């Protein structure tokens, strides 16, 4: 009787050892593929977030709200197509001009906005016309990098507009295969190139519609 128990115990212990074996880990090649896919997805999301930051939030919000109305959800006629083109033109100009705006913190602690000029910055919402309480505005004069950012902002907005289904359906209701490929590739290429150029030519302006940070040490 005892011998039979002794023979059964090793069997049960072996079964327990078998049940408690950890699951096999995926092969190293599969782990590398998952890691590469995760990094690619993370970089894609980061690039999309960076592109959104390159545009004024007010202009981008106006585009998202108005484009379905102007295009009647992508079903355009001649009149609505012309109105949509006018809307896109005005929003592009808004992106261009917003690149020349900047903000400044006055002595009262409030942030005021202005427009960069050759001699400095014209603050258009400061209550005192004499400019008393403002820092030296000559440091905020227009620079060559502002023109680069203005053009890049327009290109980024064009890329965003070309990726919108309503806008594309309005101007290209039945695109050919080659045209469809161009509409899929060009906006992505423009977005990547503009993101790289923004890194090469950084700006420290915080204009209308852009995030406002501390003013100290910005100039």
Automatic annotation (TrEMBL):
Residues 1-41 are annotated as: Disordered. InterPro entries: DMP. It is a multi-pass membrane protein. Belongs to the plant DMP1 protein family. GO terms for cellular component: cytoplasm; membrane. This is DUF679 domain-containing protein. The chain crosses the membrane at residues 51-70, 82-100, 144-162, 182-201. It comes from Brassica campestris (Field mustard). One of its GO terms (biological process) is endomembrane system organization. The keyword Signal does not apply. It is found in: Membrane. Residues 1-17 have a biased composition (Polar residues). Keywords: Membrane, Transmembrane, Transmembrane helix.
